Automatic annotation (TrEMBL):
Pathway membership, UniProt: Cell wall biogenesis; cell wall polysaccharide biosynthesis
UniProt cross-references to InterPro entries, sorted A to Z: Nucleotide-diphossugar_trans
Transmembrane segments: none
Alphabetically ordered keywords of this record: Glycosyltransferase, Transferase
Family membership noted in the UniProt record: Belongs to the glycosyltransferase 2 family.
Keyword Transferase appears in the UniProt entry: yes
Gene3D superfamilies for this protein: Spore Coat Polysaccharide Biosynthesis Protein SpsA, Chain A
Protein's recorded name: Glycosyltransferase family 2 protein
GO molecular function: glycosyltransferase activity
């Protein structure tokens, strides 16, 4: 029986050399799932290539020991998260599944095997979301079925067929909210989103005494595409207060966010009626109930067949 092809996709953007090295060190000892072949595709959206020919040759040699195929693509432009991953996806023939993983991560040898094991026991999956440390998205999931509403793309295993059918990420979303959007569109096609509690990895985060320290990119792009997502799915009413606040508070960052949102709307493709049915917005602006705030998932979020 031929091996199933599992593709790993990772995007670089001015990442530090030691961070890239840690990622490669994890891959050197990764346990490739039995019956599968692993292909690692590294895309670079930096201004200049982060890896030279000598470094690439070294990585290829190191990974070949673990029978991991390797390819590096320098894009020569910052494509954004969704567009960059779409480009990587298009450069590979049909495969069984794709793991999308951030480069600022560290993971154990059994990581991929556990994600694949859950996929194999849940054939109706569209996405299997990994578990993040030290901070993870606290969105709710069904504690009996592990079914959820959407998946973070810091690391998720995506069924190739589902990714292809939904035409990948919405390239009008440059950064942030693209994972929620593709999750909803995949669910609208009839696939399910699952959370894998034993498939864990470490995602580097900046923390202080009060919690997570947001990056400049997050402070800029996250509000733009959160607003756009709500508009795309027909919930402009949720944007009214935020837009009014941005217009009143005309600091440079707020003005730039407002301009970015208006530009994003110019090329926005509205969600279909089927996609709107699976989209869920909380009054607080979250895309799902946060599980650490409620006593009962089923009382607050509904049965798994309502997800």
């Amino acid at each position: 029986m031929p091996l199933k092809l599992l593709k790993l996709q990772t995007l670089l953007y001015h990442n530090e050399a030691h961070s890239i090295r840690k990622f490669i060190e994890c891959l050197k000892v990764i346990q490739v799932p039995v019956g599968w072949q692993l292909f690692f595709h590294l895309g670079d959206c930096s201004v200049e290539p982060l890896l030279d020919k000598e470094q690439l040759a070294q990585i290829e040699a190191e990974l070949s020991v673990s029978d991991v195929s390797f390819k590096y693509t320098f894009f020569n432009e910052n494509l954004g998260f969704g567009k960059g991953h779409n480009r990587l996806f298009q450069e590979l023939p049909d495969c069984e599944a794709v793991i999308i993983l951030n480069p600022d991560t560290v993971f154990p040898y059994h990581f991929f095997s556990r994600l694949v094991a859950m996929a194999e026991t849940h054939p109706d999956y569209g996405i299997i979301e990994a578990r993040q440390y030290p901070l993870e998205h606290p969105k709710a999931f069904d504690y009996q079925t592990y079914e959820g509403a959407w998946a973070s793309m810091a690391c998720s295993l995506v069924k190739y067929e589902a990714f292809k059918r939904c035409n990948g990420f919405d390239e009008n979303i440059f950064l942030y909210a693209e994972d929620t959007d593709i999750s909803w569109r995949i669910r609208a096609l009839g696939y399910k989103i699952y959370y894998c509690p034993n498939g864990w990895f470490y995602h580097v985060k900046r923390l202080n005494q009060t919690g997570l320290v947001a990056s400049k990119s997050e402070l800029f792009y996250s509000p733009i595409y959160s607003l756009m997502l709500q508009a795309k799915y027909g919930r402009e009413d949720l944007n009214e207060n935020a837009l009014a606040w941005l217009k009143r508070n005309t600091e440079p960052i707020n003005k730039a966010i407002l301009e970015g949102y208006e530009k994003a709307l110019e090329n926005m493709t509205p969600a279909t009626p089927e996609e709107r049915k699976v989209a869920r917005f909380e009054g607080s602006g979250f895309y799902a109930h946060h599980r650490w705030k409620y006593d009962s998932f089923r009382d607050k979020f509904g049965r798994s067949d309502q997800l």
